[in-house]
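Researcher: Good morning. I'm working through a list of sequences from a screen, and I'd like to move beyond sequence-only analysis. For each chain I'm collecting a predicted structure so we can compare shapes side by side. This is the next one on the list. No need for commentary yet; just the structure.
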Amino acid sequence: MGRWNVRKRIDADTQNTHDGQALPRTLSWPHLIAMGVGAIVGTGILTLIGIGADKAGPAVLLSFLIAGFVCACAALAYAEMASMIPASGSAYTYSYVVMGEVFAWIIGWSLILEYSLVVSAVAVSWSGYAAPLLNGWAGVPMALMQAPHAGGIANLPALFVIAVVAALLIAGTRKSAGLTMILVAVKLSALGVFVWFALPHFDAANLEPFSPYGFARNMGADGVERGVMAAAAIIFSAFYGFDAIATAAEETRNPKRDLAIGIIGSMFACAAIYTVIALAALGATPFTRFANSPEPLALILREINQPGAARFLAVTAVITLPTVIMAFFYGQSRIFFVMARDGLLPHGLSKVSAGGKPIRITLFTVAIVGAISLFLPLDEIVALANAGSLVAFTAVAACMLIMRRRAPHAPRGFRTPLAWFIGPIAIAGCLYLLASLPQKTHLWFLFWNLAGIAVYLAYGRRHSLAGR
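Model: Good morning. Structure tokens for this chain:
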């Protein structure tokens, strides 16, 4: 392969557990499903349905189906690769084993972007719910709870919730996973309350005209890109989160079985939840009433004269949104951990404590995502996070197909059905959604990867353990 693109052995990560670099195996499949549902069901359904309705009208239902189908295909590929290579690092590690170091760096760099921005975005979203409560109850100045773009100084509540989640992860993966299971149950109960009150108000007339902005991405007179695919490219972030499960491979008791159960189980459970909630929301009130609202589900409940249920939903969002932060923060810290252990990032970051906790990398991650959440606005980071995840999903589907050719009889805990149909669909779907993102996002993503290549050439290539 040559030094420029060396590939790792398929079991390299599972053997690389010496010198204080081993993570304890404490998780089983119920923890993984809770982690997946906790990551997937969050700001996506609580806020993005309003943004999607603004871009596609009632046809946002098609946007959910398209994005969900592409994600489901990617999830099946993830499940096979996770059962075949049960090591931390998710798409980064699979790419390292299958396609080589250069590709692995690009994918790892994209995952760093995705997880950092998602953690920051959800923290900012959480702060949006919590700030009015803190201002009213404790008199905290709004200037200390808003970023400069909103007229404030810094978004301190966003940094606070990130620090709390980091403390929980440092306390132990199993403890944080147990708390996640409880909060996921609370979150699903709140969404169940929404469906209970909204469905009786369903009116088919609210779904007409069904597709007012067409299917393909197009530029509206107001300069906003609209259409079913434009909405799908944004709504895509409502489904990813299952990929964070794959980063838990080294902390899973039976990874060859439990990773596939966690990935597929959480993905399809959330797809069913989203379909019911989106249908109830669109049928209960005309989409123009809640389009682009920062709290569309609570707004719909108020529109149908259920203020008590709306308050319950809002309070539940404040309580449970940290589960999304926890899942992606966990994934972010593990990606950093594995890349540092491989020598592509400073090796000292991969050290774990006597109790098996990666404290250094967790604190380093706090510094990165905390800085983003303090000063950047929500609407400028969601699309860029999607770009990172779409590239990673494409790589995983490609890795699955390559391994089907290279090692068709290698042991797999899970085999994707109709792999030569599912894999190409996942690749084509992700690339099309990537192309449907705003042009500004494409430019920022290009800049991010050029910076990443510079870091790799300056540091990663010279310190890579596999390259040596």
